[in-house]
Design a protein that fits this description.
Four copies of one chain form a homotetramer. Chain A is an alpha+beta fold. In chain A, helix 4 crosses helix 8, helix 5 packs across helix 9 and helix 6 packs across helix 8. The first copy, chain A, is globular. Chains in contact: A-B, A-C, B-D, C-D. Chains A and C meet through helix 10 and helix 11 of A and helix 10 and helix 11 of C.
Chain lengths: 304, 304, 304, 304
């Protein structure tokens, strides 16, 4: 039987001394303050056991990892109606995400690229009474943790510098694929991305996707089929233009964020979270990618 | 010797009964109120003679024709420094102007596409003390006509619906190719495009480009070389992705606007303006294009 | 316990009366002769049981399904060296596969699009002594079936009309990513695609990927890790620009061909093959896609 | 009055000592043998005078300059029917000419990019009885010089290495925009590009375009209107993605070739040819571009 405790601690020990740790994201000024040496791993097994190493309980900015949570709630609201406004295909293109949006008449490639997540945010702005408060409550509920909160400084920092997201939202609006005002939707979106969570909290939150839609308290939040589909989207689209590489090297549904977090899961088995703020050239956590690769290589646990 | 009066009136008479007149632009709500039957032609010869037919003295929204005027002032301010921020190549692409901007790292293809004109507007916002007032005065001066003014309703109408321009400006900002605030630059830009002029006024204004940089009052505003270069840019880039077609069929430097105006000129000979609000599929005035084509075919007057 | 026999036969019965069956591929003249009413399903369980319905033992042209088999052999030859010449990312783009090849300097997006499969074919042309004969023997071996053969008419038909593949191969050559002559590589490639197999034969052949690299005779052909990676590539790239949709709706690694075949598999559980020559708008078998979707919906068997 | 003799010799003297001379094209092995120090200028005035400096009578490979000559003959054959198979818009894109061809369904952007010139070559292969012989005779006739010939080594060198042209021709064929066999059309095309001429010969040949369609012997070969249109196409499309720059800096219709030749003309005034084999980053003769820019700056002679 696999000794997850040893495996995770060995991986952590091996990697934490790496000289090359990637580059901390600087385009959101608040994020650039992160320490490149931070490094945590947390595993939540479906049988209830947990394993951890390093900074597994230090909160950080989850950024794009939040896109899976907003998607989950939007699917709960709209089920398959959602797919008239956003597609489920990998984007393929590293360099020109607005280009594809233009070529495809304002229908984003998938809900995990920025443009797609902005459409999802627009849906939540329409469906929620108090979008920011209600979404936070949703995350706290599936995490079974009422302490989770937004980092308002990070949200404001992104509002002041997120010109590319303003470009995407306005382009969506020009294609009539945004119902609320650009400023309203992006205010929500920047807060959503500014959620602050620990590796442990993220793992407990994503339990819902590994557990066929029921959260760690055993309360159903989405259907079995919806959970499977979200996992499929994570596998094919979760790592930008490195998604194929991640499926190939790691073989698990997952999602990364520029804050340095990565969450991956094996349905019915476990959720595994890493945090290391240094990013590789494609914007994914360098140590996190290596840790996950080593984990699946050593354990032979993957969907394939 | 060519009888311009007869030629212009014959062309006007032939075309005004056309059943197919194109479609009035509707994306700026205020513009959609234009009468598709409006049709004017005005010719300003360099020898002082003028010829006209139809609605040549009815003011209309000059829209993108204004891009040549803002470019002229920006070149007067910055001369060749301008070209570090915007290129002079035809855009070629009808369908994805933001795509090219992304692919080329925020350097617009040329100053006559929207993204390029927004960079030019940014320069004027930096150089002018009171951008909107000062630019209006510049146009009045080269036109030798102090009655020219903005249509504020049109400017406001575009501000409320110009999401694609907000997308472009934010994208430029994300590439660090916009020094002023997006709202400031676009406020200027929407006013610039909302200039209201008649065919006659436009012809007198563009006299400066046909006359080696000296306006109709013989005052130099730009150098000979700058005038030539602006003419070159009009010839290669003045009609969006129909620029090649216009050079091929008409053979004159020119610029169109979605208000239905077109101005074309033969250096040292004449400026010719048309206005007919119905547009063809590529966004250029349908009757105007035909009128200009007939004019150069009948007179054999072109740069080639 | 799931009654696969009933499930498969019910699906077959329900779908075979569909009025809308898609369109038989016509761009390879020989393929256009297929009967749109052909419809077979075959399931090879890892426990040895087999289930089938309809035309499960009628041979058809496997076309792009062969790309997985050539990839498998190329990986056996080159292991990870292969990935310097072809990437593993989904292509994303339906409409312009050569465009991406140009933009990315002759490195195909993945080995399951045509350009990528042509690079793989080039590798086999270099590695095999008698490429066509040796590759056929490889397929016969992993299928445990010496009767499998090429359809030479189909191969010749494609040679005479496959201009797009000649374009791709020449473009690869211009980027120095093809070592053998274009004609040599494409002759091999057209034969590879012209392999003729039944649903049953394909299922037995793909057993190797569901069984961690050991074929149905329990002989290892590739390593566990190589088998996982091939499954990952099938999941992310197996259905052209419908790959995300397939992962989302079906949730299994798989591959389609324009002959109307689809193969899908759940590692350690089963291989499932369908054949119905009518294609949907994206070039995948219309009934086959529906059959697989119904199968995973009814059985809840997917990697997610 | 302008002293062309002094102007041209001064320009030649100034530039011939330039340290930076660009890079001789190497992708066609035969061309790489050219001496980077070769440099000639020739001017044919419409009044009969000629002026020259340096290697103006040394033959070189005219390469893409030939595209204007084949276009001229195709227009003479087909007039405006030609434009159903090729467009007249600038290509705009440096990096992906096949991409545009794909996006635009096999209709090349204009007849001066390779794909467009291959369509033109296809037309000549259909219209001429003995394409290579008849085309050579056409060129000799408009040049009034029976000594012009193909360099067969260059043609063969390109046939062996011109994979990108084979890609383009096959892509055109896949879109049904090539009537003859790829090998037949490209054999013609490679010979056409391998025409060997001196600066003097090219200037005398292009006299036909500066003289409203009548060659230097006063024989009409194309109509006035056809000559004007060819000049328009040269101005907007003659220098690849540097066409806007050339119009902007030089302001004359013209065409360059990778052999280092450039021809430019002012209708009704003169034809000016330069040859210097070193190319700039965009594939146009470095000294040639500078010589033409200096010439129009000093003389103020341009279409603008």
């Amino acid at each position: 039987m696999l000794d997850f405790n040893t495996i995770i601690n060995n991986i952590h020990n091996n990697l934490k001394h790496n000289v090359v740790k990637g580059v901390v994201a600087s385009y959101i000024p608040e994020l650039s303050k992160q320490d490149v040496n931070s490094f945590g791993i947390f595993m939540q097994h479906m049988d209830g056991r947990t394993f951890q190493a390093g900074d597994a309980e230090v909160p950080f900015s989850i950024q794009s990892i939040s896109k899976v949570l907003s998607l989950s709630k939007a699917i709960a609201f709209e089920d398959n109606n959602l797919w008239t406004r956003v597609d489920v295909e990998p984007s393929g293109n590293p360099f020109n995400h607005l280009s594809l949006l233009e070529l495809e008449n304002g229908i984003p490639r998938n809900p995990l690229i920025n443009a797609g997540a902005i459409v999802v945010a627009d849906i939540l702005c329409s469906q929620f009474k108090n979008p920011k408060e209600d979404f936070l409550q949703y995350v706290r509920d599936i995490a079974n943790d009422q302490t989770i909160t937004y980092n308002y400084k990070v949200a404001e920092s992104e509002r002041l510098t997120g010109f590319n997201n303003f470009a995407a939202a306005n382009l969506l609006k020009s294609f009539d694929n945004l119902n609320n005002d650009v400023d309203v939707v992006l205010d929500f979106y920047f807060h959503q991305c500014a959620l602050e969570m620990t590796c442990a909290q993220i793992a407990k939150t994503f339990y819902v996707f590994a557990n066929s839609g029921k959260c760690i308290n055993n309360i159903p939040h989405i259907t079995v089929s919806q959970a499977k589909r979200i996992n499929a989207i994570m596998l094919t689209c979760g790592f930008y233009d490195e998604s194929g590489e991640f499926a190939f090297e790691v073989g698990l549904p997952g999602k990364s964020g520029v804050g340095g977090g990565i969450v991956a899961l094996l349905p019915n088995h476990f959720v595994l979270t890493t945090w290391a703020p240094g990013l590789n050239a494609k914007g994914n956590s360098l140590l996190g990618m290596q840790a996950l690769e080593q984990f699946t290589t050593q354990t032979n646990l993957s969907v394939f």
